[in-house]
Every structure is written in C-alpha cells, then in structure tokens.
Amino acid sequence: MSGGVYGGDEVGAIIFDVGHQNLRVGYGGEDTPKAEIPTTLGVWEEPADSSGIDCNNVTKKHYNVDVTAIQVRKKDMEIVSLMKDGMIDDWDMFERLTEYTYKQRLHALSEHHPILMTECPWNTRLKREKLLELMFEKFNVPAMYICKNAVLAAYANGRSTAMVVDSGATHTSAVPVHDGYVITQGIVKSPLGGDFITMQCRQFFEEKDIELVPACLVASKDVVRERDPPRWTKRPGPQPSSSWLSYMVRELLQDFQMNCLQVSDSPYDEDMANTLPMKHYEFPTGYNDDFGSIRLMIPEALFDPSNVKGVGASILGVGPLVTTSVGMCDMDIRPSLYGSVVVTGGNSCLQGFSERLNRDLASKTPPSMRLKIISANSSSERRYGAWIGGSILSSLGSFQQMWLSRQEYEESGKLILERCA
C-alpha cells in the first residue's frame, strides 16, 4: 500500500451498511452494493461430535446465512435477527455473517481492504468499541472508519447539511445533519416502519380469511377465478418452526407491499381512494383479487397514525417528525435543514411517499423558509442511500487521512474512536 494511503488506486475500500433487515456490502467507488444479505439467520443446534469423549448435552450451533439457505426447510431451524433497534445485538451471528460475506459474496481477504462501516445515529459507545475490536482483532483489517448512516445518506444526495428522513424496517427517524455531523439532540424517532406496515397487511388478510402460504410450501396450484377459494397442494417435508414460517410469510407480505401499496397525495379519504384504479395481485396458492382503497389505507399509518388501532397518540407521523426535529435545532440552521430534506430507506420506495411528505411539510413550514425535498429518482438509490454515500466518501482523496489504521489501533486502542464523529 502506497505510503500508508489506504484508499489509493491499488486497494478498494469495502463498504458495510448494516441495516435492520439487510446488510448491504460492496466496493467503494461503485454505484450499487455487490451483495444484499439478510441480517436474519437460520439457527439450529445439533449434538457436537463427541469423538470418543463422553460429553453429554454438548450441542453445536449451526447457521444458515443468505436468502437461499434460509429458505431451506429444516425441522428445528429458528429464524433469528442479529439486530435490535438498528444496532448489532448478537456478535457471534454478526461474525458469521461477516465471514460469509468475505468468503462467498466478495471473494476477498479482509486483511487486504480497509472497511467503512455505517452505524445508526444512536449507536452506543460500547457497541462501537466492540465493532472496532472485532474487525481489527478477528478480521485483521488494515484500516477502518465508522460513520453515521444519516450523514452518508446526505452525502449521497450531495449535501453536508440536511434533514435526513430515514424510513426503514423497524422505525422512521428524522436526523438533522450539519456540516457532516449529526445533531444528536435533534433526533426524533417513531416505531412505525416497514414491519408495522407488514403487520397491518397481515391483519387485513386475516380478517378477510385469505390464507398466507409462502411459495416454497406450494407444490402445485390450479388457476382459479378471482376471489374463488384456491386449489393447491402442499409440498411434503418436515414441519418448520413458527419463526421460519412467519419469516417466509413476511417475505410474501413485503412483495405485496411493494407491488400494491401506495401513499395517498392528501390525508386518506375513502371516497377518493375508491376512484383510483385497483391493483391485481395473485398469491402463491393461486388465490387472486383486485385491491382498491386498502392500498392507500395501510401506508397512511406512516403519515397519520392517529386512526390506527393500538397506536398511542404520542407517536408522530413522518411530517411532524421532521418539524419537531427542526424545532429542536438551533435557529440559525433551520432554513438550511428545511432547504434540504433528504428522503431515504426502504419505505421511501412506496409510490407517492416523497410527494405526500412534501405536501404535509408545505402546510407546516413557516412562510419565510424555503422547503425542498430531495429524493433520488430510482428506488435503489433511496434504498441504498447510506451505502452510496459511503462509496462516495471512501473514494474521495480528502478522506484518505481519516482512516483509523491498524498501527494506530495497536498504539492507542479504542481511544482512536474519538476521530469517528
């Protein structure tokens, strides 16, 4: 490596963007991640090989990683997430996932590439130290840097100061970023995200008595008319665990979400919703139907949670999240935050998301402020916002002196984390 410059032309940095649902990983300087791997793993236990030694009750944990392996039906395999509240919770599973990523997806040696890791703005000091230790001690990376995903999402959209609205699987957050630093006291979170929308879809289908069966359990199906009971046969095999079944059903519901749901331009009105064209959807069992007003009613919860059963009045919709967050910041920077509201995260791919946020904020923004919503045109750019920002940052010449090198880690230990703002 030339003169300690880790991001020189010879060696590309690897960007790890760890989200609640997926790990996005790839080389710096590229447009999109090379791989997207679920952060949920299939876990099961088997008796350890005793090899002549009497060791009763000793079990060995096995892990299935990545989409194809998770979808294999195993009798006692549980589906477990290694994330909690946007932070890494199970380090053993994270280690397995990282090993798999290097060997199977990147075909790279960890000691050859510096890595840039994303983290959520509320990540704890303890978890950051653990991550630093794991990457330097176990994976022997030559250098690394940890950066807040909101900052990177702002960079991906060409901004160093922005209000980043990130709507992902477990929550929606509004994070103010000023000159590349997160303003911690201005972060506002809501527990409504993609998983909540999935739950709403599930409730709707249960009320309608529509059976949700994942495609991998269906051996064959007949063509039936609209709304007729499905005729299908079940694929033989071991009875899967309930966590595996609910994971596969969630995959099916997410497909329905991406194909059918749409955010209404204005607050939900049933009469208006009924005038919109219906969307046809066929389930793996062959059951098919046209869906109308429900397409707008379910995502409405993100913007106006007041009408949703079981949701407290204290939970804010996406518009109020932004205005509350801006209100908690210094008067001087409020105009620049309203002037660049960056929309990112999986839910922002729902049709009409940015337009509705623009409308909600336009009615709340003070007349003196200029409001601008920045939303990338392609859905993949919105989904991979933080990863793309990391890709841009790691390939900038001005960033090369920011890396925390292995040598510095060996000299100063975890204190070098202070440099990762």
What does this structure look like?
- The protein has 4 domains: 1-38 and 98-149 and 386-421, Nucleotidyltransferase, domain 5 (2-Layer Sandwich), CATH 3.30.420.40; 40-81, no CATH class; 158-191 and 315-375, Nucleotidyltransferase, domain 5; 194-303, Actin, Chain A, domain 4 (Alpha-Beta Complex), CATH 3.90.640.10.
- 33% of the residues lie in helices and 21% in strands.
- It is built from 15 helices and 21 strands.
- The strands form 6 sheets. A 6-stranded mixed β-sheet has the order 3-2-1-9-10-21, with helices on both faces.
- Strand 11 and strand 12 form a beta hairpin.
- The longest helix is centred in the middle third of the chain and has 19 residues, at 242-260.
Provide the CATH topology of the largest domain: Nucleotidyltransferase, domain 5
- Runs in which pLDDT lies below 50 for 5 or more consecutive residues are 1-9
**Class from secondary-structure proportions:** alpha+beta
As a percent range, the share of strand residues is 15-25%
3D shape: flat
* Main beta-sheet annotation: 6 strands, mixed
What's the end-to-end separation, in Å? 26 Å
Counted beta strands: 21
Helix content: 25-40%
**Overall radius of gyration:** 23 Å
CATH class of the largest domain: Alpha Beta
CATH superfamily of the largest domain: ATPase, nucleotide binding domain
- Total domain modules: 4
Average pLDDT works out at 92
Number of helical runs? 15
Strand order of the largest sheet: 3-2-1-9-10-21
Protein name: Actin-like protein 6A
Pfam family, one: Actin
Organism: Atta cephalotes
Family: Belongs to the actin family.
